[in-house]
Amino acid sequence: MIQILQQTSRWLAAHASLFVTAIAVLTFFIPDLFVWVRGTTQTVILGIIMLTMGLTLTTGDFRILARRPLDIFIGACAQFLIMPCVAYLLVHVFRLEPALALGILLVGCCPGGVSSNIMSYLCHGDVAFSVGMTCASTLLAPMMTPLLMQLTAGEIIEIDTIGMFLNILIVTIIPVGVGCFLNYTYSKKPSFPTIQSLMPGISVICLACIVGGVISTVHDTLVARGLMLFIWTFAVVFCHNSLGYLLGWMTGKVAGFNIAKKRTISIEVGMQNAGLATVLAGTFFAAQPLSVLPCAISCAWHSISGTILAGLFLKTDRKR
């Protein structure tokens, strides 16, 4: 039974984008399927995702922050400068309505995504650098995300910076900390590696539940306003994500990084923790229900685009 669960977890990790997209499509046709994923339930599910991240981190991963301070500093600056600025630019270029603008700005102000570490591994990037960047941006998120949202979205809606700080602290830092503590305490137990091997699958299922909950919430609006709303929003998400990859790569080039590190910073900057953005949008912008739509699309698209980009990097290696 355990072997079946481990195989399932590996399959879900390898096909995360396909699984999340399939759940989104299924929920569109059966909107009541994930109607229960709202409010506190949604927050708990994100907490589980962050717990799975903590269970895979070791003290060695955090030592990277001390051993490679310059690399991490450059990566963190790129993360919290490029994506919010690009989001702000796109909001005005595409003339997005306030709800959609809030969603894309929130995605831009969030830390790097958890699955970026997997993508860095797949494309022969600098995995240690990737883990270090994810750790740094996640630790900085409670301060940086509310601050950046105040700067970029304060003209659209009043931002509850204190509430957002506390919420991010509860759903990211605390679960990650608990996971790290459990890993440090029980890592030598024979059964613990088995538990760790199931975490990627659990994380993907939880992310799919969050996306399903969002599709359930905005279903009626999507149907009422037609396909153009989805296409227009996807176009903004696509540009935001793609420019993140490109500008992340250019940052690495300017910093004199080698190929592995340039690939990693590109992926880390372009792939955001859209799951966190989704929960924050549902919690703090409930009066603007469409704000969760760019977040949900980003959840699925960032996984798809990350897989595509990793494949392109590998194709470049084969040509060489």
Q: Could you report the average pLDDT, rounded to the nearest whole number?
A: 85
Proportion of residues in extended strands:
under 5%
Q: Calculate Rg over CA atoms.
A: 18 Å
User: Total helix count?
Assistant: 14
Report the principal-axis shape: globular
- Largest sheet entry: none
Find the structural class using helix and strand composition.
Answer: mainly alpha
**SSE order:** HHHHHHHHHHHHHH
**Stretches with pLDDT under 50, minimum 5 residues:** none
Helix content: over 70%
Distance between the termini: 43 Å
Number of extended strands: 0
Helices and strands in order:
Blueprint: H1 2-14, H2 16-29, H3 39-56, H4 59-67, H5 69-93, H6 98-109, H7 116-122, H8 127-153, H9 161-186, H10 192-225, H11 227-254, H12 259-270, H13 274-284, H14 292-319
Helix pairs in contact: 1-10, 2-10, 2-14, 3-9, 3-10, 3-13, 4-8, 5-6, 5-8, 5-11, 5-12, 6-8, 6-13, 6-14, 7-8, 7-12, 7-14, 8-9, 8-12, 10-14, 11-12, 11-14, 13-14
